[in-house]
């Protein structure tokens, strides 16, 4: 969701959600996120939006077509991948 507090705003000029009711992207707990995700589906800056939300640990709302729970899953997966990469590096350094 486009935020006024964004630091890197270039991509937001192309957001599909410009002019769309922001409440759609911040549904009440348990409410459907389907409509918001539908807007995101055709958004050309979806990846930028998602990366922005991941980088800034956005806790609420739909960003890049994903809910906080879905973004948390991605963050966890990336943390595991980083950890695995660090272990490979550490092992290769130990061998040489
Ligand atoms: S991906 Fe969704 S929330 Fe993000 S800019 Fe596009 S329409 Fe807005």
Topology:
Elements: H1 34-41, H2 46-55, H3 68-95
The structure holds iron/sulfur cluster (SF4).
Iron/sulfur cluster binds next to helix 1 and helix 2.
Question: Total number of β-strand segments?
Answer: 0
Strand content: under 5%
Bound molecules: iron/sulfur cluster
What would the average pLDDT be, to the nearest integer? 92
Structural class call reads mainly alpha
Largest sheet data? none
Question: What string, H for helix and E for strand, traces the elements in order?
Answer: HHH
Q: How many domain modules? A: 1
Low-confidence stretches: none
Distance between the termini: 48 Å
CA radius of gyration? 17 Å
Which bin fits the share of residues in helices? 40-55%
Number of helices: 3
Shape call: elongated
Describe this structure in words.
This protein is mainly alpha-helical. It has one domain. Helix content is 48%, strand content 0%. It is built from 3 helices and no strands. The longest helix has 28 residues. It starts with 33 loop residues before the first helix and ends with a helix. The protein binds iron/sulfur cluster. Iron/sulfur cluster binds next to helix 1 and helix 2.
């Amino acid at each position: 969701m486009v935020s006024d507090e964004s630091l890197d705003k270039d991509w937001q000029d192309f957001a599909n959600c410009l002019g769309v009711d922001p409440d759609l992207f911040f549904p009440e707990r348990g409410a459907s996120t389907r409509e918001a995700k539908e807007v995101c589906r055709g958004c050309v800056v979806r990846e930028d939006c998602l990366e922005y939300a991941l980088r800034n640990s956005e806790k609420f709302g739909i960003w890049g077509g994903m809910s906080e729970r879905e973004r948390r899953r991605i963050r966890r997966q990336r943390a595991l991948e980083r950890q695995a990469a660090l272990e490979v590096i550490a092992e290769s350094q130990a061998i040489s």
